# Entry
Amino acid sequence: MNRIKHIVQMQKIAAVQGNADVDISKRTAVVMCGDHGVVSEGVTQCGQEVTAECARAIAEGRSNINAVAGAYNVDVVAVDVGIAQNVDCKKLVHRKIVHGTRNIANESAMTPAETEAALITGIDVAGELVQNGTRLIITGEMGIGNTTPAAAIASVLLGLPPENVTGRGAGLSASGLQKKINVVRRAIEVNQPSPDKPVELLQKVGGAEIAAMVGLFLGGAYYRVPVIVDGVISAAAAAIACTIEPLCAEYMLASHCSGEPAGEGLLNYCGLTAPINAGLRLGEGTGGVLLVPLLDGALALYKNSHRFDDTNIERYVELK
# Structure
């Protein structure tokens, strides 16, 4: 049965690529980076300055995602779409749209124009990667405080109260978690986002890097390249992409089920099931990259597995 699931996954990639000879030899993890005004509400353990430092480390190859990606022959690209600071780093891809989003507990995160620009940026990045030979994209993000907008998105799309979809993020205390839940509730009350208006939902309670990841998923569908969903923030972006265009799900691969409470529900919303369930919380796209060796193994089976017709083994009878 596991072999059948592996083959089905390869068939999905073959359908995306329009070629039975599946090619995932060049793979790139794209880490979209942006800050969030809601950090001022005390929903995190650290401040926005950490986003800039982590983005620089990723761009320079010194972070968690680089260590994991290096083990599996995955390129890493870090893109600044909304970091509050101007980061002086030549290896960081500078596509800044906003210097951090506004505080969603008081107002909309972005303007409609900023949201559209972030979406287009993600689509463009997907196109540039495909043009440069990438055959598999892994989504990643870096943005202190971004589990708060992800929880707000999940609450709206899944129709669940904030307490059911809001988690501790990078390790909040019980009191910190309650504060975060209240902030998510207030953000929804203030902005009144609708699940039927996904772009407006993104504008009101999302973030620049989340919008850029939505663009990556849309771009994956447009440019016919499979895109791997990482953790809960990536899954929130995937869910919005599927709401914009349901066919996007056919171009997505789930990697792991986030330890955040909204993780599984968001994947289910997209019709996806994650093969990895290990309580991962490292972020940056690391969980998405961990799917790559499983795909390599599945591809080896897809191309080289022996068949009943080639052996003296009698074909199995499927029992009901």
Q: What stands out?
A: The chain has a mean pLDDT of 93. The longest strand covers residues 74-82. Strands lie at 27-34, 74-82, 93-94, 136-142, 227-229, 252-254. The two ends are 13 Å apart (CA to CA).
